[in-house]
Amino acid sequence: MYSHLEDYIYELYLKIGITKPSELDMQVIAKKLEIEILYKRKAYMLDGEIFLEPGTTREQWMEFGHEICHYLRHCGNQLNMHRLFIDLQEYQADYFAYHFCVPTFMLEDLKVNCVADIMKHFNVDCEFALRRLEMYENKQIDYSPNYATYQIAENQNNRNY
Asked: InterPro entries of this UniProt entry (predicted)?
């Protein structure tokens, strides 16, 4: 069972014809979404343009995942926002990047189960791959029949006190 975000990313990738990790190319994705990628000292998004910091392909891919969230799902100018709302948008963009750069439906198809595989197939760094694998594994535990049965029993035990 996919989350709303996982469904959104799955539909987005299907809409632009991307179904395999080998097709995850930020230049191709940007072109299909009619977004221009430019390079500056600081990463940000503005009016259909995504500005990325110069860096390795891997660094830029992960940064692109973050900035594309702002483009696709956020509105407004952070220069005029309350700090807490900016923090919320940044948290959402970070979370989005994990799912955008390493989509769940592709993880399932590949049956990936280690950090090295995620790094290799999705061109992300070790820390990013480790966090994404943790997210994926935690979700598998949450939806496993044994875990659900355990949670129901645990909740019932807590009510008896």
From this structure: IrrE_HExxH
- Report yes or no on whether pTM surpasses 0.85: no
Q: What b/e readout covers 11-45, taking b as 16+ CB neighbours within 10 angstroms?
A: ebbeeeebeebeebebeebbeeeebebeeeeebeb
pLDDT digits (tens, 9 = 90+) for 124-152: 999 999 999 999 999 887 655 554 444 55
> Residue 50: in which H helix or E strand, if any?
strand 49-52
The neighbouring-strand residues paired with 37 are: 50
Report the alpha-carbon distance of residue 121 to residue 117 in Å, rounded: 6
Residue 3 and residue 139: Cα distance in Å, rounded? 10
